[in-house]
Write a structure and sequence with these properties.
Helices cover about 10% and strands about 20% of the residues. It has two helices and nine strands. It has a nine-stranded parallel sheet with strand order 1-2-3-4-5-6-7-8-9. The protein is elongated. This is Leucine-rich repeat domain-containing protein. One of its GO terms (cellular component) is cytoplasm. InterPro entries: Leu-rich_rpt, LRR_dom_sf, LRR_domain-containing. Keywords: Leucine-rich repeat, Repeat.
Length: about 200
């Protein structure tokens, strides 16, 4: 699989492009990026502030990585992409994200939303029924929604560097979860002792 690294070279071979990695220099999302019908992997960095809600033809996209420190918009539309399996959003400010009620959710297996500053996960997180790995480290989470229990295939969960003061007990009810990291949260000492006693987890 050839990885294209400039938009100009990619647009000259639009039908052949399956993997693209570019840095967006300006604040505006380049509209020509929307029309790559055979794109399977996309890696985006730069200074983009908004993401378009219409015109996307990424029907085959499986892997998407975004790192936009200046972002001010919404990325909820990404959860409608029909083939998306691996979504990674890093250092991209997000207040929250929504899942597509009334639409089929993307078949995401691996989800990373790291260092994005969001405070809560939507109750509809359970719509991502294919999820096996989630990394929500470096945010401002203090609780997990009840819908989290619907992630029955989840095996790995990273909640490091958040704002948990009480351990989310519902995690214990997740049958396939085999790896949990929840270090560097502001647990009081008595809560750390409870976590060790009841859940047999030692947290830093």
């Amino acid at each position: 699989m050839k990885l294209y690294k400039t938009l100009s070279s990619a647009t000259q071979a639009r039908e052949d492009v399956t993997a693209l990695k570019i840095s967006i220099k300006g604040e505006q999302f380049p509209s020509e990026l929307l029309d790559f019908p055979n794109l399977e992997e996309l890696y985006l960095e730069g200074n983009c502030k908004e993401f378009p809600f219409e015109g996307i033809t990424w029907e085959r996209l499986k892997v998407l990585s975004i790192k936009w420190p200046s972002f001010t918009g919404d990325l909820s539309l990404l959860f409608r992409l029909p083939k998306l399996e691996n979504l990674k959003i890093i250092d991209t400010p997000l207040k929250t994200f929504l899942l597509p009620l009334g639409h089929a959710a993307a078949p995401v297996k691996s989800l990373t939303i790291k260092d994005c500053g969001f405070k809560s996960l939507p109750e509809e997180i359970g719509m991502l029924g294919s999820l096996t790995e989630a990394n929500f480290s470096g945010n401002n989470l203090s609780a997990l929604p009840h819908g989290f229990l619907d992630l029955k295939l989840l095996k790995r969960l990273n909640l490091d560097h958040n704002q948990f003061k009480i351990f989310p007990d519902l995690i214990k009810k997740m049958p396939n979860l085999s790896h949990l990291s929840i270090d560097h949260n502001p647990f009081p000492e008595e809560e750390k002792e409870r976590i060790q006693r009841i859940f047999h987890i030692w947290v830093n």
